[in-house]
Amino acid sequence: MPRTMPIPADRLIRAFAAARRTAWSHEHIYNSVNTLNRLAAWLAERDVTLVDASATDLDEYLAERLDSGRSPNTVKGNHVQIKGFYTWAAEDPGDGLPYVARNPMRRVAVPKQEDPDPARCPETAEWEYRALLATCTGRRTRAGDRRALDRRDAAIIAVLWHCGVRRGELVAIDYAHVDWDAQMIHLPRTKGRGRTRSRDVYLPDEAMTVLERYVWERGQHDGPLFESTRRSGAVLTRRALAANSVHLMLVRRCAVAEAAEGLAAGSMRTRSHGFRRGLASDWLESGGSQAALETQMGWRHDGHMAARYAGKRLTKIAAAEARAVAEARSGSGRLRRVS
């Protein structure tokens, strides 16, 4: 039996976010809350609440998102986030009074996923990586020399280029996660937490040198490796750099690099995921194994993500398809039977 007392949408969404903070990453919760706020506003325009929404209402909402130009992959992500909310709302919190009587998302079909458009997230080329690193040397502001900030940004760019880590994984690295002797970084689980395993990645010499220069300025103290600092009088506050701050830093660095290279504004679209795509493509092009790439990236060993990111016909799925065609042509299976 569901609760009969109406609950404001914002309060319900906050309760859902609080219940998921130990199971989901901060970025996943943030995106889910944004999706639910948009859904609540859309329903409110039709005099429907989150609790009263039917499968038909949710179908119409997702269909309108597709019609408005959102990619199928984005709408599929919205489906996952909304389904997670209603699965939680239909659970018994312990008092026998769930927020909704049944989960309406059980009857809502999942939008078909498409291969990502390479133009939306191009691979980062080596000249772009070098151009971004060049913006981290000799830069001054009105506040004077900002070597620590420049070296922090250079270290972030080098780790992205050489390791292909996700933004969420990058900002979750603590100083204690780095093995300075073995040149290894331990990456805690971040994406989904329950599905993506933690892993260790190797830091090549160039990335290690840039990172050591940053740590020399930062100091060898515990806490987040990539920090955002603020001084108020004699008090210095340190906190982990936000994932979105990495994105904004790259946008600013691209603008500086464009001016230095004499390029048109907006011609460099280097983003954090572009480093990841570039590493996957270069890895396979240089003869690296698919299994090692999947381990490096934190993917399942099924070939799906390698195919999507690298765009190569060098995956288990492609190999299986080729074998199937070859065996069919050679007369295997049913084709071998003689009528």
Q: Strand arrangement, largest sheet?
A: 3-4-5
Query: H/E series, N to C?
Result: HHHHHEEHHEEEHEEHHHHH
What is the overall pLDDT average? 82
Gap from first CA to last CA: 62 Å
Q: Could you tell me the number of beta strands?
A: 7
Q: Strand share of the residues?
A: 5-15%
Instruction: Quickly count the helices.
Output: 13
State the CATH topology of the largest domain: hpI Integrase, Chain A
Overview of the molecule:
- The chain folds into two domains: 9-107, DNA polymerase, domain 1 (Orthogonal Bundle); 126-317, Intergrase catalytic core (hpI Integrase, Chain A, Orthogonal Bundle).
- Mean pLDDT is 82; it is low at 1-5 and 334-339.
- The strands form three sheets. It has a three-stranded antiparallel beta sheet with strand order 3-4-5, with no helix packed on it. A two-stranded antiparallel ribbon has the order 1-2. Strands 6-7 form a two-stranded antiparallel ribbon.
- It has helices spanning 9-19, 26-44, 55-67, 72-89, 126-134, 147-163, 167-171, 205-218, 243-261, 272-285, 290-297, 304-310, 316-330; strands at residues 140-141, 144-145, 178-179, 184-187, 199-202, 227-232, 235-240.
- The termini are far apart.
- 50% of the residues lie in helices and 8% in strands.
- The protein has 13 helices and seven strands.
- The longest helix is centred in the N-terminal third of the chain and has 19 residues, at 26-44.
